[in-house]
């Protein structure tokens, strides 16, 4: 049997489960009597164990199984876990993460669970024998062979049998059940382990059976054992988890290929998996298990399909505008009405597609509790992490790309921003520092901010270092204030750490953050006050695919300027244009701005300008403004942005293209690139 | 081209006084010439970009790619060429026909040091130059980085 087609799904889900576990453990450390989190931990750990066992990754399964024993302590003790226990758990989670990544690269797990399992056992030994007996089910993780070793035609099913509450001798029933299953195939693993059934006191039995028999045959055999109240037989060749003590998350349920619930013999075709199987699974599951009523409410979709959906949506928008334009000239009864209907449906569809692509920024935030905990204890700092606005939604592509820059900012804040407790007390601040990561919408933008109440940026030190690095002149040193200093931190060539520490070092400076965010079409704004802390704000467009833009023409060619970068437009004849050191400057009441000719800057060549450029658009770049001289102002448009082919030169300050309703291509002006290469601006207000 | 009986289908088009061809499997479609939107490029045979059902596709001036100048004809067409990774339009004077050619009629180019040319087909007294689509793209990609024009030797070969 080949499980490789499920590998990507396994990897994705495992990473997700591990992140959730990391988070839950941090939470439980702070709040030991949070039952909900305890239950969540169990659910996730159990899913993870089931998934990895099914995929044949025995070491991961063994380790998670042993971790469950430690989690069990949470259920028994009100005072939660010892610091030591939490540390060991984190070590295990790290090992699991590493193992999952190894599987991703080599396809095989390299994990040796033994040392960690020993440590976990050491933690669990504190338990009394009575508590041991209280445990339901798990005794030893079954010795699972790799699924790949199975003979053709055989597949592994996961059997879950619940004994009735009246069952007097569960151990005998367990024995009988395994006997019955053993007649139909090979019991390759079970909870409890087959040689440990004598001690079994619980009500739930689980077994993985390699068999070539139909599911309902197995199901009938299991149900035939006395005191067995309910049987669920699942194809184990899919993902993930055996549904057991806890309700599976709806998502997890959805990707299970074929689930044959008790009584519902309609899913007997073991080859039905993948999409069709998942669809068939949901109703079957509902019939069998009432607690899975929500299965089918969510569907996992490959991210690539979402991108394609967006792509086709973009095409639809373009075609619609073409049809609209054509229809303007046509005289067909009812056409206008039809066009309006089309427009309405397509706008609704567009809104829906955009929304489908939005995911909460929480997906990125989730990694921080663990990160902050580890770093602060390593650095000997006391930090309270506040996450604000986790539900803020962002386009998937943006969320994905946001992770690394944020980690960078957080590391920097912890390493350099926040002071050790003694230093804080000496400065009259609370011992515990506050690190806030927040997200909120502001107009068409999303603002994500990382703020600490640490020592802030010391202008004198930063200025000195910037001078040593050749970033500023000696005369400029005294002019560096807090604001300028914070900005210098994000300049290429300025690395804050003198010796690259393993926390914020890694050889890349904060300018990597700046570069990444700019790649996304956003900007980073930093502010700092000495002694009071520092804040880095990442400002990103809500979505990268459809933008509002001001359409202009220069040299008879259309260009689109992102509307959020347009400050205002003006007629050139109403203002004075002066030449300063060979560059044209536009004199305005509030300052003097470089005046750039759109034809030169955007088309990338100096064409003899056949027409005078009458208008100027004041655009805002990353850190300054400039005036762009254009021929005609056309108006505001909603544009679907498209990447330009690689042949387009880097010299042109354009970031993409958009097809207009008349079929022409407008180039999208890259305002940051434009300002970056413009002549040094005269300081403006 | 080892087996005598294999055939290839080629889209034949004219350019200047010569005939060129591309394998039909890699011709995505043929459209009437529209003036491409000019863009700044470091590759001098890139004429600009056009929109092909919403996708933005570069357009190459095939004549200047091959190293000679050509007047734009009234009948000009853009042949959309597709490889596994790239798509681009090439400007040709006119598309003539689709030809089925026996592999025996196709000869390797002597001293084929031009990556855009794959072979020459001899059909009666016609010489049809078979282009290599991947080669057309390959140099555009590498040139874009270096800004160094290439295609040396093409002129010799074509006019020989």
Automatic annotation (TrEMBL), chain A:
Primary localization:
membrane
**Which EC numbers characterise this protein's activity in its record?**
2.7.13.3
Q: Would I find Nucleotide-binding among this entry's keywords? A: yes
Q: What is this protein called?
A: Chemotaxis protein CheA
Chain ranges of the CheW-like domain: 546-680
Please give the InterPro entries that the UniProt record associates with this protein.
Answer: Bact_Chemotaxis_CheA, CheA-like_dim, CheA-like_homodim_sf, CheA-like_P2_sf, CheA_P2-bd, CheW-like_dom_sf, CheW-lke_dom, CheY-binding_CheA
Modification Phosphohistidine occurs at? 46
Q: Which reaction does it catalyse?
A: ATP + protein L-histidine = ADP + protein N-phospho-L-histidine
Its taxonomic placement starts with:
Bacteria, Bacillati, Actinomycetota, Thermoleophilia, Solirubrobacterales
One Pfam match, given by its short name, reads H-kinase_dim
Record's superkingdom? Bacteria
- Gene Ontology CC terms, in alphabetical order: cytoplasm; plasma membrane
**Keyword Manganese among UniProt keywords:** no
Domain Histidine kinase intervals: 335-544
**UniProt-listed SMART domains:** CheW, H-kinase_dim, HATPase_c, HPT
Where in the numbering of this chain does the HPt domain appear?
1-103
TrEMBL record, chain B:
Q: Name one GO cellular component term.
A: cytosol
Q: Which InterPro entries match?
A: CheW (IPR039315), CheW-like_dom_sf (IPR036061), CheW-lke_dom (IPR002545)
Provide an example Pfam family for this protein.
CheW
Q: Where is the CheW-like domain?
A: 7-142
Name a single GO biological process. Answer: signal transduction
The protein's name: Purine-binding chemotaxis protein CheW
């Amino acid at each position: 049997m080949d499980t490789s087609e499920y590998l990507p799904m396994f990897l994705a889900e495992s990473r997700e489960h591990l992140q959730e576990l990391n988070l839950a453990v941090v939470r439980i450390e702070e709040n030991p009597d949070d039952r909900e989190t305890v239950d969540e931990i169990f659910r996730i750990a159990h899913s993870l164990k089931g998934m990895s066992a099914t995929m044949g990754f025995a070491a991961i399964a063994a380790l998670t199984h042993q971790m469950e024993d430690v989690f069990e302590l949470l259920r028994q003790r009100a005072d939660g876990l010892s610091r030591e226990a939490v540390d060991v758990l984190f070590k295990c989670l790290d090992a699991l993460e590493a193992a999952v990544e190894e599987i991703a690269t080599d396809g095989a797990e390299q994990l040796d669970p033994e040392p960690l399992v020993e440590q976990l056992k050491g933690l669990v030994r504190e338990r009394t024998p009575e508590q041991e007996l209280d445990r339901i089910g798990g005794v030893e993780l079954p010795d699972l062979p790799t699924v790949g070793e199975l003979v053709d035609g055989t597949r592994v099913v996961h059997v879950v049998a619940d004994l009735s509450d009246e069952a007097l001798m569960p151990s005998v029933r367990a024995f009988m059940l395994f006997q019955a299953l053993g007649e139909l195939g090979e019991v390759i693993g079970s909870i409890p382990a087959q040689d440990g059934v004598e001690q079994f006191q619980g009500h739930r039995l689980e077994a993985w059976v390699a068999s070539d028999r139909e599911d309902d045959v197995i199901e009938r055999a299991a149900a035939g054992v006395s005191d067995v109240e309910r049987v669920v037989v699942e194809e184990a060749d899919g993902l993930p988890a055996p549904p057991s003590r806890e309700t599976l998350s709806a998502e997890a349920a959805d990707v299970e290929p074929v689930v044959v619930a008790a009584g519902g013999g309609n899913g007997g075709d073991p080859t039905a998996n993948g999409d069709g199987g998942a669809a068939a699974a949901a109703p079957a599951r509902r019939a069998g298990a009432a607690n899975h009523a929500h299965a089918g409410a969510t569907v996992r979709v490959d991210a690539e399909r979402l991108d394609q959906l967006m792509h086709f949506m973009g095409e639809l928008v373009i075609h619609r505008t073409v049809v609209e334009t054509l229809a303007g000239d046509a005289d067909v009864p009812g056409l206008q009405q039809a066009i309006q209907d089309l427009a309405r449906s397509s706008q609704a569809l567009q809104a829906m597609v955009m929304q489908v692509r939005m995911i909460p920024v929480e997906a990125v935030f989730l990694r921080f509790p663990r990160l902050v905990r580890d770093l602060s204890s390593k650095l000997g700092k006391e930090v309270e992490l506040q996450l604000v606005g986790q539900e803020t939604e962002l386009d998937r592509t943006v969320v994905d790309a946001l992770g690394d820059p944020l980690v960078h900012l957080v590391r920097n804040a912890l390493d350099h921003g926040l002071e050790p407790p003694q230093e804080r007390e000496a400065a009259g601040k609370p011992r515990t520092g506050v690190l806030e990561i927040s997200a909120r919408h502001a107009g068409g933008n999303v603002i994500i901010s990382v703020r600490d109440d640490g020592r802030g940026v010391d202008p004198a030190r930063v200025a000195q270092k910037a001078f040593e690095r050749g970033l500023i002149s000696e005369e400029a040193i005294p002019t560096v204030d807090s604001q300028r200093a914070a900005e210098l931190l994000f300049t290429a060539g300025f690395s804050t750490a003198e010796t690259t520490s393993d926390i914020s070092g890694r050889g890349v400076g904060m300018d990597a953050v700046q570069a990444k965010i700019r790649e996304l079409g956003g900007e980073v704004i930093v502010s700092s006050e000495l002694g009071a802390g520092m804040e880095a704000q990442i400002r990103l467009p809500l979505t990268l695919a459809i933008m509002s833009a001001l359409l202009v023409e220069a040299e008879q060619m259309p260009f689109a300027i992102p509307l959020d970068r347009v400050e205002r437009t003006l007629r050139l004849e109403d203002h004075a244009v002066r030449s300063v050191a060979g560059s044209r400057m536009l004199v305005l009441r509030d300052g003097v701005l470089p005046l750039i000719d759109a034809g030169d800057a955007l088309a990338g060549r100096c064409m003899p300008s056949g027409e005078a450029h009458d208008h100027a658009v004041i655009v805002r770049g990353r850190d300054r403004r400039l005036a762009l001289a254009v021929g005609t102002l056309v108006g505001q448009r909603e544009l679907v942005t498209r990447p330009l082919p690689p042949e387009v030169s880097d010299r042109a300050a354009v970031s993409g293209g958009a097809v207009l309703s008349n079929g022409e291509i407008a180039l999208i002006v890259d305002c940051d690139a434009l300002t970056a290469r413009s002549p040094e601006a005269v300081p403006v207000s | 081209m080892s087996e005598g009986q294999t055939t290839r289908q080629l889209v034949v088009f004219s350019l200047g006084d010569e005939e060129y061809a591309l394998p039909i499997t890699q011709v995505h479609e043929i459209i009437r010439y529209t003036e491409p939107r000019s863009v700044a490029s470091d590759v001098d045979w890139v004429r600009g970009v056009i929109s092909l059902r919403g996708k933005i596709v570069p357009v190459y001036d095939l004549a200047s790619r091959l190293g000679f100048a050509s007047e734009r004809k009234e009948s000009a067409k853009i042949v959309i060429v597709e490889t596994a990774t790239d798509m681009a339009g090439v400007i040709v004077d006119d598309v003539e026909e689709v030809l089925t050619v026996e592999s025996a009629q196709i000869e390797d180019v002597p001293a084929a040091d031009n990556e855009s040319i794959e072979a020459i087909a001899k059909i009666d007294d016609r010489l049809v130059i078979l282009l290599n689509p991947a080669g057309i793209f390959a140099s555009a990609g590498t040139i874009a980085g270096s800004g160094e024009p290439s295609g040396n030797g093409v002129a010799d070969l074509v006019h020989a």
